[in-house]
Design goal:
It contains 5 helices and 2 strands. It is mostly helical and 111 residues long. It is elongated, with a radius of gyration of 24 Å. The mean pLDDT is 80.
């Protein structure tokens, strides 16, 4: 872990050579250690790691959050009006018209 905290990850994307924060090149042994680091170790060191599973989970959570918000916002939309700009109100009304027109095709929300 100490090696991860002393790694400069701002390197060219096509480079496989890691450096210490002070610019020194890693030894071959250090290179091997850093290349074998787990995702959890990298994330613990504060490195952002692309994780397709986490991205999919975040997308699913965003949809679930939107459903939850809509459950309360749609019936009480008048509460939002004081916070909306005129342009947003026009856009909201336009989009709500589309939603209402297609409501026959939307399955009811299950709690």
């Amino acid at each position: 872990m100490a090696l991860l905290f002393d790694t400069d990850f701002n390197r060219p994307a096509d480079s496989l050579v890691f450096r210490h924060l002070d610019g020194r090149l890693f030894t071959e042994e250090e290179q091997a250690i850093i290349r074998c680091a787990t995702t959890d170790e990298l994330q613990a060191a504060g490195i952002r790691v692309y994780n397709p599973r986490a991205k999919a989970e975040a997308a699913a959570a965003a949809l679930e959050l939107a459903d939850l918000l809509f459950k309360y916002v749609i019936p009480h939309h008048e509460v939002l009006v004081p916070f909306m700009t005129h342009e947003d109100m026009l856009k909201y009304d336009r989009l709500a018209t589309f939603v209402a027109a297609g409501a026959d095709h939307i399955p009811p929300h299950e709690d």
